[in-house]
Amino acid sequence: MPLPKSIATVCLSGTLPDKLEAAALAGFQGIEIFENDLLTYDGSPEEVGRMCADLGLAVTIYQPFRDFEAMPEPQRRRNLDRAERKFDTMQALGTDLILVCSNTQPATLPEPERAAADLREMAERAAARGLRVGFEALAWGKQTSLWRQAWDIVHLADHPALGLILDSFHSLSRGDDLAGLDAVPSEKLFFLQLADAPKLSMDVLSWSRHFRLFPGQGELPVGSFLRDVLRAGYRGPISLEIFNDEFRAAPVRRIARDALRSLILLDDEVRGAAPPAGVPAAALPPAAELAGFEFLEFAVDDPSRGQLAGLLGTLGFARAGLHRSKSVELQRQGGVNLVLNSEPDSAASERFEMFGPAVCAMALRVDDPARALARAQSLLSPAWQERIGEGEQRIPAIRAPDGTLIYLVRTGSDIWSADFNLAAPQAAALPPLAGIDHVVQALAPGHLDGFVLFWRAVFGLQADPVWELPDPFGIVRSRTLSSASRSVRLPLNVSESRQTTTGRFVSAYAGAGVHHVAFAAPDVSAAAAPDAPMLDIPENYYDDLAARFGLGDAQLAALQRGHLLYDQDAQGGSFVHAYTHAFQDRFFFELVERRGGYDQYGAPNAAVRMAAQARQQRKWASGKGTSPNPINVCGSCARGRERRASRPCSRSRLTSATMQA
Ligand SMILES: O=C(O)c1ccc(O)c(O)c1
Ligand SMILES: [Mg+2]
C-alpha cells in the first residue's frame, strides 16, 4: 500500500475551489487547509468541508496557528480564546488536527515549562471536542526552532491530544537530522510535512517562504528524512507544504500533477532498496537503463526540410532512407539518426504549423520499453499513441511536459528497415560522429522544476545544481540532467529575459523545446566541412584561453582556425567544441569532443557563445551578412508564424530580419 498523500493548499494557485479540485484531480487523498486560503474565501468552513468531502479529499490538517505558546498575559488568555474559535472552524471543516507553529514573537518567554503548560491547556480544550494539536518547530522560531526542542515541550506537556509535527524543510535547512527520533513514541508523531529546496545561502525565513520545492526538485535529503520518520513508526499521511513563488503563479493542475508525481517518486525511493521494517517494498517498475538517443525528429515543411538537410550536409550527414509511405526522411552521420518529417496531418505537421521548424520527438534507447512505459504511466505520464499507417510498427511513446514525443526504443533493435527504404551506405565525406552527446532544451520561465522532476522520476536521470550563464541580454539559468552512464545528457536552460538566446527561442517557439543538439565528434577540428556555417568566436577569447590554460601557440592557432572553444576540468580532462549558426534563428548544432573523462559542458564558454549568437543575430537583423538559412522574423514579436514572408505577422509589422539566401 502506498502511503496516503496530502498537499497544503498554499502550494497551489487560484481560488480555494480551484486548489481543491486540482488536488483531487491529480489524485491526492488529503488536503491541508492553509488558513489564509480559508480567510480569503467567501464560502463558509462547512461549505469548504463539504467540497472536500465531495471531491474525496480528507482535510488532514488546519494550519497554521501562530504565536501561541509562552506568551505573557493578557496575550496568553487571548490566545486560548482564539484557539477555541479555530476549533469551531476545524469542526466545520471536518478535521481533527491543528498545526501550532512555534512562536516567533520577541515577547515569547524563554521558558519551555510555560510553553508546555500552554500547549497542554490548548490540548485539553481540543480533546474536549475530540480534536488534537500538533506542535511544529519553525526554523526561525524565537525560542523553539529545532524539532528536539519542540519534542521536549510536547513531552513535558504530556497530553494525549498533543503531539509533534515534523517538517523536512525546518530541519534540513538548518543542517539538522532526525537522530533521536526513535526515542519518540510513534503515537506522538502526529503529522509529517515534506518540502525540498535548492541549497541557497540566505536567511531561512525568506528561503522557506519563496524557494521551497517538491521533493526530487531540490538538493535536500528529503528521502532519508522520510525514511527516518517511517523507521520511527510514523504511518500517517505524507503531506507537501511548498511555498514557492513560481508554483503560486503557475497553472494549478500542472503544479498539482507535479506535486503528486514527486510524492509517488519519493514514496518509491524510500521503500526501494531497504524499506523500513513493516513498510511494504516499492512497487514502481525500475527506471529504464538508457543507452543514448536512437533518433531526434524534426518537424519541417518541404522547403525547410531541404534547407535543414543542407545544413546537416555540412556536418557530414547524408540521406540514409525515405519512409515507405510518408513524407519523412532519415538523415544519418555515423551513430546519429535525425528524422526530418514533413508529412501533412501528423503530430509533426501540427507542431510545424504552430512553431515552425522544431524538434517534435526524441527516441531514447531503453533496455525494456514496456517497463519504461509502465513506470512513466505510474508517474502520471500517460502513453501516447501516435497515428500510424497500415503495416507500420508502433513504438511505445510518452510526451514530455512540453508535448515533445519521447519514443522508447529497445536498445539494439532495428526500427528502420520496416518503415524506411534504406539507401546503400555511402562513403562518408567526414569522419563519422559517435552519437548525440547532449540535447539542450530551452524552457519558458517557471518550467524548470517541473521538467527536472519529470526526467528524474520517469527516467531516473540525476540533476546537477543550477548554473548561471551570462547572456549579453540577461541571465540564463541552466541545470543539467544526465543518466548514470552519461549516455543521455539533457541540459535545461531557462531565462526571464526575452532577449537572451534562450528567451528569444522560447518566445518564438511559444513554449519549451530543443534549442540545440550536440554531436559527439572523435575529432572536432575535422568534423565540419569548410562551408559549414560555424559561429565566429572573437580573438579576445583566444587571448584569454592562452592566459588561463597556458596552451601553446600551435594549439591556439588550431582552435582559432576551427572556430573552436576549449575548456579543462580540474582532473586534466578537456573539452573542445564548436557551434553552427542557428537554423532559421531557432535551433543550432554543436560539435563536441571530450578528452580524458571531461564530464561537463563547457559552461565557461557559454557566455562567449551567446554573445557571438547575439552579434550574429544583430548582423542579420540589420541586413549585414548573409544568413545561411533564409527566414523572415518579425522584429517585434519574433513569433514562429513569421517564418513565411508571404504570411504577415498578425501582431506587428513584418520585417525581413535576415537576408534571403
Ligand atoms: O512560513 C510559515 O509561517 C510557516 C507556517 C506553517 C508551516 O507549517 C510552515 O512550515 C511554515
Ligand atoms: Mg510546515
TrEMBL record:
Q: What is this protein called?
A: 3-dehydroshikimate dehydratase
One record GO biological process: 3,4-dihydroxybenzoate biosynthetic process
E.C. no: 4.2.1.118
Task: Give every VOC domain span.
Answer: 292-411, 435-570
Q: Origin organism of this chain?
A: Dankookia rubra
Q: Which cofactor does it need?
A: a divalent metal cation
Question: What would you give as a GO molecular function for this chain, any one?
Answer: metal ion binding
Q: What class of enzyme is it?
A: lyase
Quote the record's binding site residues for Mg(2+): H438, H516, E590
CDD domains named in the record: HPPD_N_like
Residues annotated as binding a divalent metal cation: E136, D167, Q193, E241
